[in-house]
Write a structure and sequence with these properties.
Elements (H helix, E strand, L loop, with lengths): L1 H27 L9 H13 L4 E8 L3 E7 L5 E7 L10 H4 L12 H21 L7 E5 L2 E5 L2 E2 L4 E2 L11 H17 L3 E2 L8 E3 L3 E3 L6 E2 L5 H18 L7 H14 L1
Antiparallel strand pairs: 1-2, 2-3, 3-5, 4-5, 6-7, 8-11, 9-10
Helix pairs in contact: 5-6, 5-7, 6-7
Length: about 260
């Protein structure tokens, strides 16, 4: 009788443990934006089982192609987890930036195959920028449509760094020059053009940090020079509004292109 009762208590304890685990897992991966589909949940659990992440918390930012969430790694340190939408993705614009990239040969237009390539493209671009010494989030892992990268912000308070457009830039002239140097180094050393650079894609964390580099193209891309000019034009316009006197975007673009040719 005692053995049967002990067995029943053991089973009940195991059921309670499993219920607690399911509840904890649900809390760890609780998100509110509706971006998490079944395939993405499987991807997240794969990253969880590997120890790449141990929890997923609130949303840091939302965008037309992805949401970024604050996560935790195995050591409970904050990481940024970017989840690209698959089922509701608008992919037509992506083809302009990925077709012709020698890193990606077989490109299908269906979102379920294109989105993982787009996520991988951002991972590869972050890696190139990071290895060239540019201030970008360090890439940590990529799995299907989920990119794990360095959390940019206060790791103690878990507050993400603000966009440059939402702060009073300490020294607009120096900051403008620093960003221009980053564009230049990105082109000449990383071999990349951001292709979507503006005050909406630069964080401020003890200086400017480039983000959202999925659209970035290799400098051998047919439209690289045009995208370079567009990036420089966006930044000069923004800093001119802050009172910075700059060279024309055309002059700066020619300078960067000339530097690359002389290397």
């Amino acid at each position: 009788m005692k053995r049967a009762e002990s067995k029943r208590e053991e089973i009940e304890s195991e059921l309670d443990r499993r219920r607690m685990k399911r509840r904890k897992d649900a809390d760890d991966f609780k998100v509110i934006e509706g971006v998490i589909d079944t395939r993405t949940l499987k991807t997240l659990y794969k990253l969880l089982n590997r120890g790449t992440i141990r929890a997923l918390h609130g949303v840091i930012s939302t965008g037309k192609e992805a949401n970024v969430y604050r996560g935790e790694d195995a050591d409970r340190k904050p990481v940024a987890v970017k989840i690209y939408r698959v089922s509701t993705a608008e992919t037509d614009f992506m083809l302009e930036y990925i077709v012709g990239d020698p890193r990606f040969r077989r490109i299908k237009r269906r979102s379920r195959t294109l989105i993982p390539l787009w996520a991988l493209k951002e991972f590869k671009n972050l890696k190139r920028y990071h290895e060239a010494g540019l201030r970008v989030p360090a890439p940590i892992a990529i799995e299907h449509n989920v990119l794990v990268m360095e959390f940019i912000g206060d790791s103690e308070s878990n507050l993400p760094a603000p966009l440059i457009k939402n702060i009073q830039v300490p020294s607009p002239v120096d900051t403008f020059n620093e960003i221009m140097e980053m564009i230049e180094r990105g082109y000449t050393q990383a071999g990349l053009v951001h292709a979507d650079l503006s005050e909406y894609n630069i964080l401020w964390h003890n200086g400017p940090v480039f983000i959202d580099v999925s659209q970035s193209v290799l400098k051998v891309h047919d439209n690289a020079a045009r995208y370079l000019y567009r990036d420089i034009q966006n930044i000069t316009k923004y800093f001119q509004r802050l009172g910075v006197e700059t060279e024309t975007p055309k002059t700066i673009t020619k300078h960067v292109l000339a530097l690359a040719e002389s290397d």
